[in-house]
TrEMBL record, chains A, B, C, D, E, F, G:
UniProt xrefs under Gene3D superfamilies: GroES chaperonin
Protein name: 10 kDa heat shock protein, mitochondrial
Keywords, comma-separated and alphabetical: Chaperone
Source organism of the structure: Limulus polyphemus (Atlantic horseshoe crab)
Pfam families in the record: Cpn10 (PF00166)
SMART domains xref list: Cpn10 (SM00883)
PROSITE patterns referenced in this protein's UniProt entry, alphabetically: CHAPERONINS_CPN10
Family matches, as CDD domains: cpn10 (cd00320)
Protein origin, superkingdom: Eukaryota
Entry keyword Chaperone: yes
Length: 101, 101, 101, 101, 101, 101, 101
C-alpha cells in the first residue's frame, strides 16, 4: 500500500482533519449507546494543502493551520483511511469555524 | 468536547448569531402557545469571521460587527450548539438588514 | 422584539420598499372587491443598502434612493413586518424601473 | 396609482418597448381573425435604462436608443401596463436586432 | 410591418444567415423527396452584429463577416422571417466553421 | 453544396479531427466483426481554429496543431460530413492527450 | 493503432496515473478474493499536462509531477488503455493529496 508509514499532504485548499472521540458517558456518568452519540463535528487539523490557485497561478493560503481545533459542517468531506485510522478531507471554505485556542 | 468553555471564531464570511427570545405574551398579556410563536428572525451578532477571500487572497471584511442586531432570512443558516445554547451561522451576504442601534 | 421603534437598514444591495395602497374603487366609483384588486407593483423606496461589494471589497452604490417611486417585478422580494406594517426587501437589480418624479 | 401621467424610466440594462399593431388584413384585403394574427415581434423602443453595472460600478450603455425599431425574441420580456396601454421590458442583451432606420 | 423593405442589423454577437438551398437531385439525377433531404447546415452570412460587450463595455468583434459561407450546428438558432424569406440568427460562438473561400 | 472541394476552417477553439481506421484483425489475424470493434478514440488533427477569445477579445491559441495524433474522449464531438468522409469537431479543452510524435 | 509504442502526453491540467496493485493477501497471509479487494485509490503519476490556461492564455502549472504517489478520489477519472495496460486521466484539481516521498 502506497501510504504505509508516510504522511499525506493534502493538495490545493484541502484540509486533513481527525474528528474528536465522541463522549461515551453523559455528565451524570451514564453510558451513551453508540447510536445515540451525536455526530462529532469538532476535529483537529492534521495537515493543510498549499491553498487554491487563482487565475495567475498564485496560491491563496488556507485559513487554518495544523493543530487548530475546528468545527466541521454536518455533511460533506471525503473519508480517508490511513493505517486503519479514519481521517477526513474538507475544503478550506467548508470549515465553519475555529475553536479559540 | 472540543468547544467546552472556548469561543467559536467563524471562518471566512460567516457570522455567528443568537436569535432573540420569542415574545411569550401578547400586548394584552395573553400567553402565546409555543406553536403560535412566530419564528424569530431578529438576532444579536455574537462573532464575525475575517471575511471572504477574493482572487488575490485579500480578505473582504463583512458588513456587520459583534453587538449588532440584525434581521435574518426566514430560511438558511447552520444551527450550532455551544454549551447547550443554540446559535446560528449565516453567511454575511444572507443577512437581510441591521436594526438601527 | 428587536425592531420596536427602530429603523431597518438594508444590507448590501437590498432595497426596502412599501407598496402603494390598492385602488378601492373603479374610476366610476364602484367598490373593487379585495380579490379583484390587481397586485400592486408600484412602491415607495423607504431605505437602501450601501450596495453590493465587488472583488476588491468596494461597494457599488444602488440605482435608487429613498423617496423614489419604483416598479417592482410581479414575483420575488422578501416580506418583512416592522411594527405590524408590511414592507418588502428587493435586490437593487430586480427593481424594473423608476417612475419619473 | 403611482404611475398616473408619469414616465417609467427602466433600470439597469432594461429596455421599454411597445409592440407594433398587428396587420388586421391580408395583402388581399381579407380580415385576419385575431387568433390567426402572428405574434408581433417588432416593436418601438420607448425608453432605455442607463445600462448594466460592471464590477467597478461603471455603467455599460445599452445597444439601442429610444425611437429604434427592434426585433424581439419570441418569448421572454415582462409585460407592463401603463395607463391601460401595454408595454414590455426586455433586457438589452435579449433584443435580437434593429431594423435599419 | 416594421421590417418591410428594411435591413435587419443583428445586435451584439448575433449573426444573420441564410441556409443554402437543398440538393433536389442525387448525383445520378434522381429527385430527392423533401423528407429525405438532409437538413442544410451550410449557410451564407448576411449580416453580423457589432460583437459581444465585455466587462468594460468594449465590443469584441465577431469571427465571421458578411459573404462568408459557414457551417451551422445541427440545432439552435432563431428563425426570422423577413419579407417571407427564411433567415436564422446564431450567436457567433455557435457557428462551427467557415468554408475556405 | 457549399463545402464541395473546399476546406473547412474551424472557428474559435474547435479542432477538426479524423478518427483512425479500426483494426480489422486481431494480432493473431482473426477478422474482428464490426460490432466488436472498439470505438476508435485516436485521431489525426486535420485543422484547428484560431482559439477561444478572452474578455479583451485576444485569441488564446489552442494546444494542438494539424498533423498531431490525439486521444479523444469517449463521448462528445460534433460529426461533420465533408465530401462523404466523416470528420469530428471537438473543443480544444475536451481533447485528452497527444501521442508523442 | 496510433498509440502503439508511443507515450501519451496529457493535455491542459490532466494527470496520467497508474493505480497501485491491490494487496492480494491480508497481513496474516490470507488470500483476499478479488471482490473483497478495496478499490485502490493510491496511484503513481506517469505524466502531467502543461496545466490549465487562464484568461491571458498563460499556463498554470499543475501541483504534482511524474513519480509522485498520489491519493485519488473514489470516483471520477477517465480510463485509458495503452498497450493493454490500464491508466487513468484525472484533472489536477481532483487529486486529493500526495504521499510524502
Amino acid at each position: 500500500m502506497a501510504g504505509i508509514g508516510r504522511r499525506l499532504i493534502p493538495l490545493m485548499d484541502r484540509i486533513l482533519v481527525q474528528r474528536f472521540e465522541p463522549e461515551l458517558k453523559t455528565k451524570g456518568g451514564i453510558m451513551i449507546p453508540e447510536k445515540a452519540q451525536a455526530k462529532i463535528q469538532s476535529a483537529k487539523v492534521i495537515a493543510v494543502g498549499p491553498g487554491a490557485r487563482n487565475e495567475k497561478g498564485e496560491t491563496i493560503p488556507v485559513g487554518v493551520k495544523p493543530g487548530d481545533d475546528v468545527l466541521l459542517p454536518e455533511y460533506g468531506g471525503t473519508k480517508v483511511e490511513i493505517e486503519e485510522k479514519e481521517f477526513y478531507l474538507f475544503r478550506d471554505g467548508d470549515i465553519l469555524g475555529k475553536w479559540e485556542s
